[in-house]
Inverse folding.
């Protein structure tokens, strides 16, 4: 069975449009569709604030562009209105009303809502009932936000919506913190894999962004390259590397937690951790980690250089200079020589 992952936020209207288009793609039962978290507006407050007021804020306006970055805000809203009408979003899907009565068209989105708890509920739905239950919960949350004016950041509201979709016990689960670690880990995984807009559809090693037409989504499933099966340790290392490249050292450290627990003596793991400590200004931990690495491998020129940079950043220029000079002698890297000159200039003649 193939798996499609949809990285999307529940306050992104294009995610709702994309869901409708996916339903028309006719993927069949041999494709598992799993919803993954994405935050277009991570600074959204708790409790929620009226959306009309929030859209006067350029930060909130920028969140709309994160749903469809190719369009300017005005074009985004115009295109969205057309797409929503075409996909009949906001109309009843109850077969008793023929699916076109408009009976569920009530208020529209009225809240700038923080969706972290909504993503927790969605993740728990998949864990407890699989893709079908998760899809029902996603549908109920989207409809509540976009057509009923519900505040999907409110935990009592989320618990009630989940129960309507067939998922009970969410009030207690949210209070306990269930799903928090999973959502945080998935947000980091998405970031490391380059997910940068909502919605993003991923199958194997292939992806498309935006609310694509049904035929494009069907082609994605048919033509997608299979994912590379990697051991968890390799996957975590690569994710941590990617997060460091994205200047998220704290995310890299979170990714490395299981590796540090199980493979804390591995030099590659420890060097990555040292880089993350340095990047997050945890200079004491960086120094201790690098010194222990160099005890075992004194010829590691990069570890030597990073130790010098750590000491330099801590204002310990006299201690930094020998390490930087040794690193520069071992490798012709321009950064090494630049660091030596910089520290020499800061020391008295």
């Amino acid at each position: 069975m193939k798996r499609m992952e949809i990285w999307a936020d529940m306050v992104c209207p294009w995610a709702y449009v994309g869901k409708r288009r996916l339903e028309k793609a006719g993927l069949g039962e041999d494709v598992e569709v799993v919803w993954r978290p994405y935050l277009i507006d991570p600074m959204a407050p708790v409790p929620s604030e009226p959306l009309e007021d929030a859209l006067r804020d350029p930060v909130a306006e920028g969140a709309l562009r994160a749903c469809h970055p190719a369009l300017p805000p005005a074009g985004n809203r115009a295109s969205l209105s057309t797409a929503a009408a075409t996909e009949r979003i906001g109309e009843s899907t109850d077969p008793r009303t023929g699916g076109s009565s408009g009976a569920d068209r009530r208020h529209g989105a009225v809240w700038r809502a923080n969706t972290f708890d909504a993503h927790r509920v969605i993740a728990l739905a998949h864990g407890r009932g699989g893709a079908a239950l998760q899809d029902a919960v996603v549908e109920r949350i989207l409809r509540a936000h976009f057509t009923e004016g519900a505040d999907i950041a409110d935990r009592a509201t989320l618990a009630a919506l989940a129960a309507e979709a067939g998922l009970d016990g969410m009030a207690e689960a949210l209070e306990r913190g269930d799903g928090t670690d999973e959502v945080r880990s998935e947000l980091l995984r998405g970031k490391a894999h380059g997910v940068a807009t909502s919605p993003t559809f991923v199958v194997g090693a292939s992806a498309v962004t935006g609310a694509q037409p049904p035929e494009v989504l069907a082609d994605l499933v048919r033509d997608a390259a299979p994912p590379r099966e990697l051991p968890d340790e390799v996957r975590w290392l690569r994710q941590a590397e990617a997060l460091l490249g994205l200047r998220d050292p704290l995310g890299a450290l979170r990714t490395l937690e299981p590796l540090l627990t199980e493979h804390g003596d591995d030099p590659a793991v420890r060097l990555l951790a040292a880089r993350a400590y340095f990047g997050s200004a945890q200079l004491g931990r960086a120094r201790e980690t690098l010194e222990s690495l160099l005890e075992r491998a004194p010829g590691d020129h990069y570890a030597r250089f990073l130790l010098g940079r750590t000491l330099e950043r801590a204002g310990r220029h006299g201690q930094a200079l020998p390490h930087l000079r040794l690193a520069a002698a071992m490798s012709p890297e321009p950064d090494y020589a630049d660091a030596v000159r910089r520290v020499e200039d800061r020391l008295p003649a």
Summary: Strands lie at 2-8, 31-37, 49-50, 111-112, 200-203, 206-209. The chain has a mean pLDDT of 88.
